């Protein structure tokens, strides 16, 4: 009785098919795994900051006059008279281990981040795009002027302005670890509400101050994803 095995050609063809299938599926699996990790990191930080905000208002007994209202989907209504008090109370609830009131990049509080201005320039083939409405998130302000706070859990807060106003701020959910890109591990948060209740929300992407780099996600998209049923 003769025995017949696989020929070399058949083996090579089979390996080639396996290689093609792997090339098509492995990147998808990696992307899904990375997105799952991102969601878990984001959710942990989001819950930590949200709980800190709840404690702030519980201890104060009233809402600080420092928030954005969201009337009819418009983020233009702002309350800013007690932002210093809010910032101090909010940071007190978080475990800050390092702070930089200025020169955050040079002093090691933050890694090199791009700003709204530089991201828009990259996305428009080097053309300068007007972003004066988002000047607090210009790259030079983020690196050299705005306040930054490093937390014990590794996350980093970068305020919108040099005055340390936490009504709107950037959060790097994994700190100095890469990629350090907007929409990947760097997200914009806004404190929103009214005179009875506030919460940690997200900015209006149409306003232009929440750009996303290289196929990343907006803060709104991640929040909606982690709480999707």
Q: How would you portray this structure in words?
A:
The structure is a single chain. The mean pLDDT is 87. The longest helix has 53 residues, at 8-60. The protein has one domain. 38% of the residues lie in helices and 15% in strands. A hairpin with a 4-residue loop joins strand 7 (186-193) and strand 8. It is built from 5 helices and 8 strands. The relative contact order is 0.14. It is α+β, with helices and mostly antiparallel strands and 229 residues long. The radius of gyration is 23 Å and the shape is elongated. The protein has a 6-stranded antiparallel β-sheet with strand order 3-4-5-6-7-8, covered by helices on one side. The protein has a two-stranded antiparallel sheet with strand order 1-2.
Radius of gyration: 23 Å
Q: Which strand-content bin applies to the residues?
A: 5-15%
Order of helices and strands: HEEHEHHEEEEEH
First-residue to last-residue Cα separation: 61 Å
Q: What is the helix tally?
A: 5
Based on helices, strands and strand pairing, what is the structural class? alpha+beta
Q: Work out the count of structural domains.
A: 1
What oligomeric arrangement do these chains adopt? single chain
Main sheet overview: 6 strands, antiparallel
* Poorly predicted sequence stretches spanning 5 or more consecutive residues: none
Percentage of helical residues? 25-40%
State the total count of DSSP E strands: 8
Q: What overall geometry do the principal axes of the alpha carbons give?
A: elongated
Give the strand order of the largest sheet, numbering strands 1, 2, ... along the chain: 3-4-5-6-7-8
């Amino acid at each position: 009785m003769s025995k017949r095995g696989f020929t070399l050609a058949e083996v090579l063809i089979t390996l080639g098919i396996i290689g093609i299938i792997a090339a098509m599926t492995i990147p998808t699996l990696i992307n899904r795994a990375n997105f799952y990790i991102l969601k878990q990191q984001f959710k942990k930080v989001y819950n930590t900051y949200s709980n800190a905000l709840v404690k702030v208002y519980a201890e104060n007994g009233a809402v600080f006059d420092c928030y954005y209202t969201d009337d009819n989907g418009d983020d233009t209504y702002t309350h800013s008279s007690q932002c210093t008090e809010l910032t101090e109370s909010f940071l007190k609830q978080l475990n800050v281990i390092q702070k930089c009131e200025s020169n955050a990049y040079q002093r090691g509080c933050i890694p090199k981040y791009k700003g709204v201005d530089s991201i828009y320039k990259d996305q428009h083939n080097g053309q300068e795009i007007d972003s004066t409405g988002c000047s607090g998130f210009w790259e030079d302000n983020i690196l050299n002027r705005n306040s930054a706070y490093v937390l014990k859990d590794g996350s980093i807060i970068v305020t919108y302005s040099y005055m340390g106003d936490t009504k709107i701020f950037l959060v790097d959910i994994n700190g100095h670890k890469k990629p350090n890109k907007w929409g990947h591990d760097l997200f914009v948060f806004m404190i929103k509400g009214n005179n009875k209740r506030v919460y940690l929300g997200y900015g209006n992407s149409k306003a232009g101050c929440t750009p996303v780099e290289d196929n990343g996600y907006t803060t709104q998209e991640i929040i909606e994803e982690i709480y999707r049923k």
